[in-house]
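2024-03-11 09:14:02 INFO receiving multi-entity request
2024-03-11 09:14:02 INFO entity count = two
2024-03-11 09:14:03 INFO echoing inputs for audit
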Amino acid sequence: MTDARGANLLALGCDALDSTTERALEDLLEYADPDLVYVVRDGADVRVTSRLRRAFDGPVVDPDGPATCHTVSVSGVTFAFVDAIELLEDAIGEPKPSADGIDDGGRKRSAVSTDTGDDTEPFPTDVDYLVCDDLEPVTDRVTLEATLDGREAIARYQARSRGETVFCTGSLPASYDYVWRDVVDGVPIRLPVRGLGPIRRSGAAELARLTCDGAGSIAVSSVPGDRIGLGALAGVGPETADRLRDRGYDSRMHVAEAPIADLRSIDGIGESTARRIRRSARAIEESCVVRRTDESVPPVDGNPLFVDIETDGLQPTIVWLIGVYDPARDRYVDFVDTELSRSNPGTATRAFLEWLAAEYDDPELVAWNGYGFDFVHLERFVARYAPEYREFWAERVSTNDPYDWAIRRDHAVLPGRTNRLEEVAAALGYTRDIGVDAIDGRTLAKRIRRRLEGPDGTEPTEPHGGSGCATDREIDWENARKYCEADVRELAAVYDAIANAKPTAGTDGIGRATGDAERTAGGTSNRTADSTAQTGLGDFEP
Amino acid sequence: MNLALTGAELVDSYPADRYSEQVRERITLPARSARHVPAGDVLPAELASALGVDLWSHQAEALRALEAGENVCVSTSTSSGKSYVYGLEIARRYLEDPSVRALLVYPTKALSRDQEGELNELFRTLGLDVSVGVYDGDTDAEEKSRIREDANVVITNVAGLNQYLEGHHRWAEFHADCSLVVVDEAHSWTGIAGMHAAWILRRARRVIDWYGGDPRFVLTSATIGNPGEHARTLAGESVTVIDDDGSPRGRRHLLFWDPPSDDGRPGGSAVGDERDGDGWASSGRPATVEAPELWAHLCSRGVPSLLFCDSRKGTELAIDRATEFLDRYSPAESGETSLASYNAGHGKRSRRETERRLEAGTLDGVATTSALEVGIDVGRIDGTVLQGYPGSRASFWQRLGRSGRGERETISAFVPRHATLDQYVLRHPEYVLEGDPERAVVDLENNPVYLQHVVCAAQELPLTRDDAEQFGGTNRLERAVEYGRRIGDLEGGLSGGVTYTHRDRPQNEVSIYAEGRDTFDVRLAGEERIDHEPIGRARAYRDYHEGATVLHRGDRYEVCDFREDRPQPYVELEAADVDYYTQSQRRVSIYDTEVRDSRRVGSFRLNWGYGTVTVRYDSYTKRAVDTGETLEAGLETGVPPLEMRTQLCWAEVPPAVERAVTNAHSEYVNDDCTELPPRLHGYLGGIHAIEHAMIAVSPLELTVDPADLGGLATNRLPDRPDRSGWFVYDGVDGGLGFSRRIYEEFEALARRARALMTDCSCGRDEGCPACLMDARCGNDNRPLYSPAATDVIDALLEDPEQAAEKRRAEGEPVDERRPPASIS
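2024-03-11 09:21:47 INFO inference complete, emitting structure
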């Protein structure tokens, strides 16, 4: 995973991990590479946490044992963990905080090695992040009222804090980002609240890795909870993983080298599943594309134009940048809307269509997960903001999605833990050759959204949802364009890798024990729950 | 051939030993001739000549309004060719532009397929190549994509539309060219489903707008009291109401046929005798015997007839009863009488066969459930028999209207059961003959439902200030958005665009028969599946507790498992061949009332607002299906109390009235009410009776299922412990809008409630199941006392000046201590 500055906190819900072995946990930890692991209270399970403690060589904060308040500092960032909101109330309840409120609990086990809290020390008034699972909205749908449990206590804490503390809670998903407000002694107080809990999606929950910097800015990346250890293999769910382990396969490398006949002898694994599992293991272990069929990658015999759009979120209100890479001319072109006009969020789309119609008769666009995102929204924006090109779009433009072709339609297995473009590319050995900071798409999208709403006097003047900094950051357009260019060039490379990957041997090979062909009779494989998870939405960040 | 039997001939020909003056009313409704408009006046010449017939005036009027760019709501009688209005409108638009698209929304999947056939036939007649596709859960993926791309007319249902809106980019072309949205059977969208339908239609409109479509709306409706208002609420657009029916009608003989008592005395349906405890059962011949006999007689005398029953089993039993009757009474020379039953339990093949025989005229009669109430062509049917009142005037006339095509003379009979509405209608024929039809109630006030659709809309397209007008107004929308942001479902602001934050589909959470996210799935034990919508929590607690019987599409099931302790709660049913049904009893408490609106009715204060209602469905009763007799009582449901914040309406009785009525009836004592002070039995029995009666008669004014309402009579109102009064509340979280309408039409309902108690032939002060008693009453229908009730209603309806005068002349104030006493 790409690294960003700050402390990496991995938040885990135990229910997603209850059948996970220690070895698989190690795999997860290696992948997520956290500085600190936080186990959310909801569904916490001592068996899982003890396995975690054994597998992880760093602080693990879990809700077991007596309730405490304590702090942990990692990479210069300070976290306070408050097991119950009453403890915070007690700690800040009096002008001079005494230890009375917290010493009943005492300190936790020594696993929290960097603990600065002490029975006799006052609770620090100025942590960067305060984590408490008691923070939770209380709602009344009939009156449309929502309040935050624990708000008073954190407001009083914030009022005393010199910097701005960000409050985190495992009772809300990691996508949660809202600034609550309160008034203490007549002074308005901002209370940025972030979630730590698993993000729901179809299939399994995603675990959240939060990169928290000292300025209160959090970048969230997600880790699919079901794709660790053997579970990372296509066609392998918890049951099959257990059976594989019983058979002695305890790593993906083992599976990659297994004879098909041996895999087949395991209950519930037939010929095609065995091949599927092994292909997947090879793709990951050998960092290559493994083709299942010898069909050509679309567009067949065409000139692909690689496209990427940048928006302001999962459900975009604007498409502000469209980058196109034409490998035939080795040319990158982009259409950027630096004005970010709210009245015309289709400016970039229109410019793109004008150019496209002028330059190409029958353009063949290629976008990664385009059927799930880019083309969906382009189509919608064309209809609304460039209606005169609707017909051109419908009749002349062909759209292609190599992700859809490879994964959903089962033509190839890709390396990488998820099928996110950057991860597949990295696994294939492509490194981004750009001299700029990698910026995460979600953060960029959020800044755009904030810019769109900021100047309007009818909206709150404070940025929405952005718990990061109180002041807006400028958008570096050049940086964004370079980023987009890197993206479409990377897409072209991945596309080539898929197109150039040959089915490993001849196309007959059914039944051969080793070096067999990767083409199965019948083409489509049985789609198990695992294969659905493999193509889950978790593959994509906005 | 003319109608074989008129009303008088029917009586004359009826077997003498089965006739004891059942005919309580004999009404002849005159024929109405058609008013025609030449098709060429409103349609292009080529369509008019291909059509080959003239239009009825209301069809022409509707087509003219559409041509003028108006939205229309056609609210006319059964078989008045309402679907021709939109069929011809589509044809007219198609002639101008063959790329025209129209969205047709029907209430059910079954109706969609029928209408597809009918439209195809019309377009064939017109010689137009308009393609029609049904797009729903039964359509396969390939066909779906073809329909999205090519079909001019897409037929779907509301629940399906809710889902398809999510993938709107795939419908880009369709939406861009969509110029007509049709909502068929609009009157059927009331209550919770009505709210969902209204929001779903607004979401659809918004998506169509995005792609550049600018559709007109056509709504068709049975006759209701407020077609314009209802259509506007549903579609969010103002409409032109077309209700001047130009279709012809033959002369109709309508009989109110009251089953005799067992010993042959007339008026049996309301004759009751007291049995053990609360046990009340009619000793008359039940409608389930009488109606099939009458129907059999008609069928055997050359009047092909439909018999409408309320369950599948009822249709099968009716055939048995009719056959027994014919064996005994049918004249040998009349030959074999051919009867069949029809309901959704029969396979598709068997139903098609019955339909075919009906059309061919080889069947003399069909006993049916509501399945034949709409849609399907029933061919030459001259007679209809209603086994019981179907619950609304609209349905009453809809069913009767199935007999008689064009100007053919017809005969119909209504056979009342021993039930409140049946008895009321029997005694007040003017109610169905003259009264204004019920008003359809759709309430957009309910916030839990509103929130769901705001979230769906934000997921479909960013929500902005421009959407406020259709989505509850700026203030409410801002509050909903802020709520969504606080709980993390929404992000952004209304000026830039509010969007949904999660990756799942909030549309999946919408269940159009439930009020929010806390729904129960309904499953069948074992391998088989059941086509049953998820249900709301309130309904699950009330009617789907363990041991409850459930009547679903005419089949009876028993609930064998009730599971709420999991992410997706569910109930599990198994088929049950039992001859009892169950009813849970509720105990209600109400607190935290908040007045939103208030008005005076006479010297009373009437309030409407919100309150917290706790309902305990602790026990249930088993009753016999045919007699209603209590078989077992006090069985435990095992469900926890249900708490909801909902809308309610309540009357505060002025202390002077309370005193006067209490004093006047202080001698009445009900020995079973040991927990209530004896001198209050009369008065409390009075306001308890009013609460029951007002709920019982509410379907006479509103399209409401009384099961969705609840009530409480108390001598200490939550916000005014020194006053007594009674409540009527909406039985779901957030409310349904019914109590609001009851608040508005309180006087009319009070009058009907009074008539219900004074006119009932039981003649008992404590009432009977056909007037004051409610099977759901958590206090075993005790105390109920109609003399006190009518006094209170009279005080409510009298002029306050006179009332004050009268009170002054009356006696001393009595004991002011007020022990708490509430009866639900």
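2024-03-11 09:21:48 INFO post-check: Chain A touches chain B through 48 residues (CB under 8 Å).
2024-03-11 09:21:48 INFO post-check: The two ends of chain A are 16 Å apart (CA to CA).
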